[in-house]
Design a protein that fits this description.
The complex is a heterodimer of chains A (about 325) and B (about 290).
Chain A: H1 2-28, H2 34-38, H3 45-54, H4 61-73, H5 87-122, H6 127-141, H7 144-158, H8 174-208, H9 211-218, H10 223-260, H11 266-275, H12 279-307, H13 309-314
Helix pairs in contact in A: 1-12, 5-6, 5-8, 5-10, 5-12, 6-8, 7-8, 7-10, 8-10, 9-10, 10-11, 10-12, 11-12
Chain B: H1 2-26, H2 28-46, H3 82-118, H4 120-134, H5 138-149, H6 153-179, H7 183-190, H8 195-231, H9 243-250, H10 259-286
Helix pairs in contact in B: 1-7, 1-10, 2-3, 2-10, 3-4, 3-6, 3-8, 3-10, 4-6, 5-6, 6-8, 7-8, 8-9, 8-10, 9-10
The chains are: A mainly alpha (about 325), B mainly alpha (about 290).
Chain lengths: ~325, ~290
Amino acid sequence: MLRYIGKRLLIAIPTLLIVSIFVFMLQKILPGDPALVMAGEERDPQVIAFIRAKYHLNDPLIMQYFYWIGGALRGDLGISLRTNQPVLVLIGQKLPVTIQLAIMSMIFAFAIGIPAGIISAIKKGTIIDYVANIVALSGLSIPNFWLGIMLILLVSVQLGWLPASGFEMFTVDPVRSIQTMIMPAFVLGTGLAAALMRHTRSAMLGVLKSDYVRTARAKGLSENVVILKHAFRNALLPIVTLSALLFGQLLAGAVLTEQIFTIPGFGKLIVDAVFNRDYAVVQGVVLCTAFGFIVMNLIADILYVLLNPRMREGA
Amino acid sequence: MTTIAIETLPEQDVHSENRAWAKLKASHSAMAGAVLVVFFIAIALLAPVLPIADPTATDWGAVRKAPSALHWFGTDEIGRDLFSRMIWGAQASLLAGVVSVAISVAIGVPFGLISGYFGGWTDQIISRITDALLATPFLILAIALAAFLGPSLTNAMIAIGLSSMPVFIRLTRGQVLAVRTEDYVEGAHAIGLSHTRIIARYILPNVFSPILVQATLTVATAIIAEASLSFLGLGQQPPAPSWGSMLNVAKNFLEQAPWMAMWPGAAIFLVVIGFNLLGDGLRDALDPRETD
């Protein structure tokens, strides 16, 4: 098992290395001199000189990369040109907000997607299955920023039930936090719920045809026990893997959701950085996101092996 | 024996194509998707000849007017006709969807073919680069690329195309690995055909179906991505119409002019669900494991 984890970690290293090269090269696709672009419209010679020195722009490209990655490995992702704060500090401030949004969205997604997938598989070919599939496809097709706008229009503007924007950490004011996060979490969770529903349905359909489910039924076990204890437990494997992969979708979705509901999180950080031409922040966010995604994939792989006894023995 | 396999392949292909087409036509959901897609393509193509208002013409006497006989979908914050902007916006969305996917396919499929066919170090290098690209969430990568390339519809298309490319590399590679040990490929090797000819004539046609399905589904993703980038101000630039940028403006006038937000989102939803239904239908029709 440890050998398997070690092997997966070794595979992740070149991936991370290549991601870092991509992220570094982003700065190089800026048209013209990056120092001039990063210096903003005023183009203060002192600022330009500072940027050149800071990013070693007069050195060969390969050296520039090593300076940059060396800094990143020590936790130095650069300084935000806008706020003058270290990029890592900014990310550290914004990440808890997005994590709270992500957890609430996941709760929505699991609460809706998994039961819907199970019911749809059990009722395959019925009107319930048909409607569940249409709803899931709609969930995948609806742009979440539009869903957010429509919810604000209905729930906040027309009905006045929930605030249209704002944010409070759960640890500071739980009631206010839930009030402000219900709509964003629902918006972000919809697409995930749809994806989970389709995968749960597909996994359950595969498992329900298997011999051990037939045997469990033949033993006279109740249908609930057969579905939940025998079928669902085995269908859980692909769902676990998918959940980790959905993490990336969640972060990408958070960019737009946070923008609509004015939530000061990770997603809003990258958008604001884009408009402020704060390229160090953009690079830092992309690098951290990719790192998080690779770690989540690693966790999914390990969980997959832990949950699957046959693979556990093989590993 | 191998020669026979090679010679009979096109005939089998014709049969399977006919069967797939029949299955696609029999699927109500796929046909509904096709109708939606054709409808939006038609209005996008016909936009220049339709008798509609200039989508960029402002009218300060008709600012934020609700839908009426004169302005079917109402007007926006500077009096532009929303019906006309919706129709012209279809051009930007569909163009972005199709061009982005064309970029992904044009780069991703050849790399996937090379990676799967040649294997070894070439495969290792291409696969690691693909892993790295897949490790960055699609929209975040597209936003970062669009930010560095500069805001415009062309750059948004390039950003979306490059961001969705790794999916095609991975898919094509997997398909090639499954096909390259088939008898007819071994036979083609045995009779001394060049690698290029084997890839073009025997591998590509046999990995085409899943690529077509993925391309159809990716158009849907690309349309949402273009709308997202335009919504953030990184795609189509004003005054040219785009559904995403229309939503960006509309969110500031939700109380005064809610219709401004309704139409663009509904249009994105319909065209995306159209491509998704068609893609799902194509997948079912082209999957040999699916039985009639």
